[in-house]
What we know:
Helix content is 36%, strand content 16%. The protein is an alpha/beta fold. 40% of the residues are buried.
Amino acid sequence: MPVSESHILVVSPIRPRHMDELAAKYILHRWDQAADKDAFLANIADRITALVSTAGVGVPSDLIEKLPNLKVITSFGVGYDAIDIAACTARGIRVSNTPDVLNDDVADTAIMLLLATLRNLVVGDQWARSGQWSENGAMALTTSARGKKLGIVGLGRIGQAIASRAVPMGMEIGYFGRNQKPVDYHYDADLIKLADWADVLMISCPGGAATKDMINADVLKALGRRGYVVNIARGSVIDEPALIAALKDGVIAGAGLDVFHNEPHMDRGFAKCANVVLYPHHASGTVETRDAMAQMVVDNLQSWFASGKLISSVN
Length: 315
Ligand code: 8YV
């Protein structure tokens, strides 16, 4: 029997162990498992004061409207572009995310994709695995990260974690963002200028309407045929048809991608490109980090019900 009378709607579950912890403390309603979601809500909607979801799933805006007493949304993930924050704030609904605990694994993934792309890891793996090495000798030379200019689009906490890894690799850092930051890196308030300056464009900004399709054909053209794109932010930031065309036509040299439009149904056009390294939105996908993210969801709920305060709120 849960110790609290608080009713929580589960739109997307977190880690199993942490779900058990929530079930022991609160009355959970598994909206995610309901076949008929409206019928499921009918008897409980007015009792729901809290909601749990993940960054990938978010919260449908029409669902928020059906929950008259909803006070708090605790989301598993740092990105919250799939939640209508303005509508929540207007209703006085507080929203929390799980920042910082994933910075290292996401930044490691960014560097992993950068090196895998510039050094052709997947091609090399295939060259050895398929027997081509023994038949045809060494694979084609690749290009070094050392001495390259890394243009970071979005120098937030994750962007800075990436920069701190790239500097000791001998890369020069530049960045684009709304505001110049108190850091000793090359700054461009013009994205086209940064792309022209950079050898590698690293996308680490938030998703959402403000950054939708920001990396378009003009930016890719400015980056140039020896340039590379790495994206660990959101697929929505890149104009995907423009990127696929740029990869196919040699407008840019290659890309390393962790995020895509319409996940998990990635555009098959990418699968046909030999000069792209693909990773299925798994930058934070380690047991250690996902457990830490889940613990932040549990702690935010605990703090909310105990004091009405969130540990990591976004509004
Ligand atoms: C997701 C992410 O949380 O944190 C984010 O914003 O995109 C990921 O870490 C993860 O894919 C689960 O939805």
